[in-house]
Structures are given as structure tokens and as C-alpha cells.
Amino acid sequence: MGKMKLTKCISKLFQRIKNPISLPEDIGRDLGIQILYNELSFQDCIEKLLTCDCESKHLVRLMPREDAEMLFKSAIRKETFRDTSLFSYYIYDGWLAFKLIFDDQNRLRRIYLQHHALDCPENEDGLEMIL
């Protein structure tokens, strides 16, 4: 049992070196999904975030804005605008952001994933996640 705990601590140390500010598990905890980033490449992790089998357990379509914004506790940057909110996490190769879009009644309509490595020229908002 002690060996497993030591292995987990060493793995956590390497994750912290690779991601000194935000850990992928922090992002997953905020979204209500499990991200095993140490077992996935960055691209695999992004693809997992965008698949229907990885829907957020916390975010749901039409939830009140206040409830949706409160979920992003681990975000390093939090910006709110009239119809949108932007929550950003700093990972090893740049900012990973979640853009939440709200309707005129302040209900969550859409969420987009943004990162400089994502190729989404047709949509400046980023890649849409499933709600």
C-alpha cells in the first residue's frame, strides 16, 4: 500500500512540474468529469472533453448563470460580460479557456473550449462542448 501512495505522489509531482499553475484534474473537478491527463496526451484530453461520453455532470443547458459561473472555482482568470463569461486555466502550453454563452434570461445556452492549439477557423468562439 505504501508503494502505491509513493507512486501516486511522484506522479502528482511530475504533473505539477508539467502544469505549475492549473492541473487537468482541477479542470475536470470544476466541470464534473474525470480527466486522467497523465494517461492521455493533450490532444486526447481535448478530444475527450468534446465527446458526448464526457458530458459535464455539473453544467446543464438552461441552468442559471450564477450557478454555472460558481462551478469554475479553480479557474485562474474569470471574466464576465453581458452575454458571456470566460474561465481560463493555465496549463503547460498556454491558456485553456471555457467560454459560456447565456441567453437574455441569463440561462446557459452553449459552452466553447478555446486553446491556441485548437484548429477551429470557422468558429471564432472555439470548439463547442456538449451540454
Please list the strands of the largest sheet in the order they lie side by side: 1-2-3-4-5
Radius of gyration: 15 Å
Please, what is the oligomeric state?
Answer: single chain
Helix content: 25-40%
* DSSP summary: helix tally: 4
Return the structural class: alpha+beta
Mean pLDDT: 82
Largest sheet composition: 5 strands, antiparallel
Question: Could you please describe the fold and organization of this structure?
Answer:
This protein is of the alpha+beta class and 131 residues long. The protein is built from four helices and five strands. The protein has helices at 2-18, 24-31, 42-49, 65-70; strands spanning 77-80, 84-91, 94-102, 108-114, 127-129. The mean pLDDT is 82.
